[in-house]
Amino acid sequence: MKDSKISQFLSKSLFIKGVQCHKSLYLQKYYPELKDPIPPSREALFQSGSEVGILAHELFPGGVEIPFEAGDYDRQVRLTQEAIVKGAKTIYEASFNYDGIFVKTDILHKGKNGWALYEVKSSTGFKDIYYPDISVQYYVLNGVGIPVTRAYLVHINNQYVRHGEIDPFTLFSILDVTGTVASDQSSIKEEIAKQKKMLAGDIPSIDIGPWCNDPYECDFKGYCWQKIPETSVFSLRGNRVLTFDLYNRGIVSLDDVEPDELPRAQRQQVEAIRQKKVFLQKDAVREFLNSLWYPLYFLDFETFADAIPRFDGIRPYQNVPYQYSLHYLEDESAPPGHYEYLAQPGTDPREKITEMLMSQIPDNACVLAYVASFEKGVLQDLALWCPEYEDKITRTISHMVDLAYPFQKRLLYHWQFNGSYSIKSVLPALIPELGYDSMEVRDGEMAGLAYSRMQKSVDPEEIEEIRKTLLDYCKLDTFAMVKLLEVLKNFAR
């Protein structure tokens, strides 16, 4: 039999999980071992959020911080009460427990008109899910006798540009959400009661749905989606495909889909998978190839994008390149050559990376990138940061061609693309001997995490090992483009 007092105890994060899906909350309380592994990208997000939260303390400096102690809620509540009794005007991570709900408030500040709570987010704007997040804190604080007069959301100002030391008063934007939060209190109380009642019973019978990914990807998606086959209606790609409409009609496998009710691109995807077919528009591929010229240079950047800008002239979440790979072909019969650059730890990479890259790309080169809009955006920023190279960068951008184009437009479409034109889908289908699965770094997110580890390391051997993995990964990105161009030429013949 369940201990109702323990089973119905909720933290703020558990309450928010329950707002998204009661079944997810139930599984978290009783079957946490069924959770999906935490992806590295989420760990990086947690770290970034922690750094943003600490910096936000400077909006109200000199406060008292209540340390987080997993499981020891009573002590955190007691330390908070002691700080209030001693006259603290600002408390970071103030902790309260009311009606079986434990919350920690990012910043609690007492001004002329009373207590105000500040919820800090590392996003650049407001999201609807922030309302129950702030509202449940408001509910608990007022419940324990802390009269909250104002409630605010603190988020990143994406127009901020760093010049010198970080200025928290311009890096952050503060939004007053008191009116909505106050009016939400009855619905918050109702939702708490619903969650407690649910937790006292059996596992909720909730099927998969849009709530599995909105507003956050659920930790138990692997468990709840295990019955979905690898090639299902959820494999269909395209904005016009309403996959849950098909699923709710009992159509799960692609074999059960009526192609005539799908948009053209998705009909092609279903036909290709069913028949293990390759579609080719040979004339269009030839036209694309005829738009290229030699020398050909294949460019790929790796970037970081911090919430708190590291260097002057950078906005929050602006892509800053720390690495590139550059393969090149002098003519059609020449073997590929290769350049590469990876910034040293602790340095601003922008000037050196610009100098090196612009010295290596000839003025008359055709420059290929995969989804070239990204590389163009990075180059445009480099032109602003390093104006002495602006003319050369502008010429380089004008000579860029997107190698993803023939795959995005399905001039060449292989059934194993599974509706995607990502190089991670295209490469193993067309060139099975090349791939990322055996590599230590397999995608851009992993590359960013590795670069971050390299920045923090003081071990020369570890730094050198990370450098090698990063160089190998980025090199494969551009070598893959060289080989994909060969594949296109072979199909065109």
Give the SSE map.
Elements (H helix, E strand, L loop, with lengths): L3 H4 L2 E2 H9 L1 H9 L9 H17 L7 E2 L7 H13 L4 E9 L2 E11 L2 E7 L9 H14 L4 E9 L11 H4 E5 L1 H6 L1 H15 L21 H4 L18 H6 L15 H12 L2 E3 L1 H9 L5 E9 L15 E10 L7 E6 L7 H11 L5 E4 L2 H14 L4 H9 L1 E3 L2 H4 L3 E3 L8 H8 L13 H13 L3 H33 L1
Parallel strand pairs: 1-4, 2-3, 5-6, 9-12, 12-13
Antiparallel strand pairs: 3-4, 4-5, 6-7, 8-14, 9-10, 10-11
CATH class of the largest domain: Alpha Beta
What fold name goes in the CATH topology slot of the largest domain?
Answer: Nucleotidyltransferase, domain 5
Form type: globular
Could you give a short account of the major beta sheet? 7 strands, mixed
Oligomeric description of these chains: single chain
Report on this structure.
The termini are far apart. The chain is an alpha/beta fold. Helix content is 43%, strand content 17%. Strands 1, 2, 3, 4, 5, 6 and 7 form a seven-stranded mixed β-sheet that branches. A five-stranded mixed β-sheet has the order 11-10-9-12-13, sandwiched between helices. The chain has 20 helices and 14 strands. The model has no long low-confidence stretch (mean pLDDT 94). The longest helix is centred in the last third of the chain and has 33 residues, at 460-492. The protein has three domains: 4-199, Lambda Exonuclease, Chain A (Alpha-Beta Complex); 212-262, no CATH class; 284-492, Nucleotidyltransferase, domain 5. β2, α5 and β3 form a beta-alpha-beta unit.
